[in-house]
Write a structure and sequence with these properties.
alpha+beta, Alpha-Beta Plaits, 2 domains, seven-stranded mixed sheet, four-stranded antiparallel sheet, 9 helices, Ribosomal_Su5_D2-typ_SF, transferase
Length: 367
């Protein structure tokens, strides 16, 4: 699902060029959360990264056009609401303001944009789960619906990136794509490839090997994919983490090269593990990636405690997910019974909330 090099958008109604027309018309856009399995931060420097959608964490943007006042300026307001009928609060971000200007220029909306946007977001902020990108994506799609513009994947990606670069200073683009994907993706340098999850009975392209080097055809092929996300309760800052690494790499280019090389190797190996249904090996790559992130200064004592709790409960692997310096940890638990044990241990270790994200044959075990 790589963005193409062309961008297409077209009117779908005769009034789309007149923002004062069809007042009170509603435009709706939707997106969801994401979690990075391997490769965060290194992806900014050209390494690959693996991410999964988190469909139970949703964002819906409702954009309503109103009659423009007579002062000649655009009037676009944003408000945020959330779970449990939370009251709407005004939202003013430079990223979303920039997005409005870029949308208008890209799509040729004539005249003024006078729109109220209400964003219903269930993705916690500062947790590395893609809240800013998902909100931006939902807003882009709501504007497209409201002004009857048909945007291709590249146009949506570019508009979300406009907001993300303002929000984070430097954005790889993985969040902009993963918050709209329906399956795991392998992302690198602005393009993404969907990774199908093998199911039992699927024939692996290369059967898993035993320790003696012979193919192991005795166990069913399929990826045991119950992931558990745990919120440490401390908000992280992707922008701060990106800046921390930038300064560190500027001081020592060899540190950057070694970090990117090792993360790239782990991510490529994990993609092969996923394709071959080798859950245990995949989990081990996650834990190894966490060690690299911890060594470079992006973990916290609380995140490390959650990783240790996961492994003690029998989890197959665990690591930071997202920017670090707080936020969330993600674990591969495998079987449903093991996932329940991991969730219990994580709460005992201080996780303030958890989400189970199933892939493949465990899709019915979400909670």
């Amino acid at each position: 699902m790589p963005p193409t090099n062309s961008r297409t958008f077209a009117d779908r109604g005769t009034s789309a060029g007149d923002p004062d027309a069809e007042r009170d018309r509603l435009g709706v856009g939707r997106a969801h959360g994401k979690a990075i399995l391997l490769g965060e931060h290194a992806v900014v420097y050209g390494a690959p990264a693996l991410a999964i959608p988190v469909p139970q964490l949703t964002v819906t943007a409702n954009a309503t056009r109103f009659l423009c006042p007579g002062d000649g300026a655009d009037k676009v307001s944003f408000a945020m609401t959330g779970p449990a009928s939370a009251p709407a609060t005004p939202l003013a971000t430079d990223g979303l303001r920039r997005l409005v200007a870029e949308f208008k220029e890209m799509t040729g909306v004539a005249g003024r944009m006078c729109v109220d946007v209400l964003i219903d977001c269930t993705i916690p902020q500062g947790c590395g789960l893609g809240s800013s990108a998902a909100c931006a994506r939902a807003v882009v799609l709501a504007f497209a619906d409201l002004f009857a513009r048909r945007l291709d994947a590249r146009a949506v990606f570019d508009l979300v990136q406009t907001s993300e670069k303002v929000a984070h200073g430097r954005a790889s683009g993985i969040d902009a794509l993963a918050t709209g994907s329906t399956s795991p993706i392998l992302f690198r340098s602005g393009t993404a490839r969907e990774l199908p999850i093998p199911m039992p009975g699927d024939g692996p392209p290369h059967p898993p090997e035993r320790t003696d080097g012979r193919a192991d055809v005795s166990r069913p092929f399929g990826f045991d994919g119950l992931f558990v996300i745990a919120d440490s309760g401390v908000a992280g800052s992707t922008k701060d983490a990106v800046e921390l690494l930038r300064r560190k790499f500027e001081r020592n280019a060899e540190t950057q090269a070694e970090f990117v090389r090792r993360v790239s190797s782990l991510t490529h190996a994990a993609a092969r593990d996923l394709a071959r249904g080798q859950s245990s090996d995949f989990g081990a790559r996650m834990t190894d990636n966490h060690k690299l992130l911890r060594e470079i200064g992006l973990s916290t004592d609380r995140i490390d405690a959650l990783v240790d709790a996961t492994l003690a409960a029998g989890g197959l692997g665990a690591k930071i997910s997202g920017g670090g310096l707080g936020g969330c940890m993600i674990a591969l638990a495998g079987e449903p019974g093991r996932a329940q044990a991991v969730v219990r241990r994580l709460h005992e270790a201080g996780a303030v909330r958890t989400w189970v994200v199933p892939v493949g044959r465990f899709a019915s075990h979400a909670n």
